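Listing S7. Sequence submitted for prediction.
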Amino acid sequence: MDLEQAKQELIDNAVGHNEYHTISDWEQLKEAAEHEQMFASDRVRILGGLVSLANSKT
């Protein structure tokens, strides 16, 4: 996978508005991917809590 393909993969999987189309090197891509990964981990944690809550109510 080259940088443009990786950048498109990031853009396709990112949440919200961003400036990822301006990424021009692997370091910028790494930082952006880490940022998205951090937010994804938070979403997984929150959604897991909601699943647990819903399971306790059924």
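Caption to Listing S7: primary sequence and predicted structure tokens for the chain studied. The longest helix spans residues 26-57. The two ends are 45 Å apart (CA to CA).
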